[in-house]
Amino acid sequence: MTEFILNHLPWFWLGVCVLGIVLEVFTAALTTIWFSCGAFVLIFLSAIDFPFKWQLLIFAVISFALLIFTRPIAVKKLHVKKEATNSDRLIGRKCLVTQKITEFEKGAVKIDGVEWTAKADSGEIAKGSQCEILSIEGATLTVKPLQGEE
Q1: Which pLDDT score is estimated for 107?
Q2: Stretch (H or E) spanning 74
Q3: What whole-number distance in Å separates Cα of residue 144 and Cα of residue 94?
Q4: For the whole model, what pTM was predicted?
């Protein structure tokens, strides 16, 4: 297998490049794309017949240089601002637990006459307790009991 790879290095680097792009599409973390760029350069350099160990070194240098120096700029440029919604005004407010919330099961809370699915920040929260809303994920509130309600 090693001999096959060494005899077909441009195809190996093309495979590394495509793999990095596919991983980047699924993670969107702006990490593997730089390794794809390094592999792309090596597709052409491998045709010059460099020894494989030098190709690996060049690949590592290019990839890590791109990762270290360009990723922060790209992240800053591509950073999408989170749009505030009306539900964001609920964060920090008090609510009443209408269905017991356990560590492994969601419960329900009521705020402004509307019942929401809720999960506990930690531990268990009994029905009838008052809680503070910490965050919202989709249609689920993350809550913690108020001091003295635990």
Answers
A1: 94
A2: helix 52-78
A3: 10
A4: 0.52
